[in-house]
Amino acid sequence: MNAAKRREIFARLAAANPEPRGELEYASPYQLLVAVILSAQATDKGVNRATGPLFAAAPTPQAMLALGEDGLSEYIKSIGLFRTKAKNVMATSRLLLDRHNGEVPHDRAALEALPGVGRKTANVVLNIAFGEPTIAVDTHIFRVANRTGLATGKAPRTVEEKLLRSVPAEYRLHAHHWLILHGRYVCKARQAQCHDCPISDLCDKINV
Questions:
Q1: At what angle do helices 29-38 and 61-76 cross, to 10 degrees?
Q2: Helix/strand/coil (H, E, C) string of 82-108?
Q3: What does pTM read for this prediction?
């Protein structure tokens, strides 16, 4: 796919949704971090149902530790892998207090050193909480990038690196959200909604 076509794709996505937002609900960088940890292999809607009551009870690392792992598990037991996630959230909360004065670090290495935080989660936090032009390649972005021809690759890291090189600079900050939302609601895994797609004429339609 050439540069002009890529630019037009993002121009159209931007025109349709100038200020895109993620669908996880949170009120602080810490709550965002916890929500993203919980969202692995889970839907944002399912996570939001759990974190609404959870964040009311434990909005900070201190409050989360006071809640305890068993208490946290009661709030998130509807989410897949909740026991492992509860351990990670508690350990992460403890490290934030011990190493970062209870604040979420604005640093990739420090984020990825936290339990339950990999590159994708770090990218989400850096992008949403700190305004970094990162692109977190989840299943939706991986599919959209490969299917459209925006950035093809067999591994998420490959697709991420290609997108970072090829997305026009003025669209890079929000590219993450545009591509996720496009994959979630239009370029679906099982049945792509090509008839409702604003970029259908620009798409390579690989294995639709």
A1: 30
A2: HHHHHHHHHHHHHHHHHHHCCCCCCCH
A3: 0.91
- State whether residue 168 is helix, strand or coil: coil
Q: Which residue has the tokens 């929000």?
A: 174
Q: Tens digit of pLDDT per residue, the chain (208 long)?
A: 898 999 999 999 999 999 999 899 999 999 999 999 999 889 999 999 999 999 999 999 999 999 999 999 999 999 989 999 999 999 999 999 999 999 999 999 999 999 999 999 999 999 999 999 999 999 999 999 999 999 999 999 999 999 999 999 999 999 999 999 999 999 999 889 999 999 999 999 876 6
- The domain limits of the chain are 3-21+134-202, 29-128
For 182, phi then psi, to 5°, come to -65, -40
Q: Which fold has domain 29-128?
A: Endonuclease III; domain 1 (1.10.340)
Can you name the CATH fold of 3-21+134-202?
Endonuclease Iii, domain 2 (1.10.1670)
Q: CA 52, CA 123: separation in Å to the nearest integer? A: 23
Q: Tell me how far CA of residue 207 lies from CA of 8, 109, 183, in angstroms.
A: 22, 36, 14
Please identify which of the residues 5, 87, 98, 120 carries the catalytic annotation: 120
Active site residue 85: no
- 138 flagged as catalytic: yes
- Annotated catalytic residue within 5, 70, 87, 138: 138
Q: Which of 138, 48, 135, 38 is nearest to 93 (CA)?
A: 38
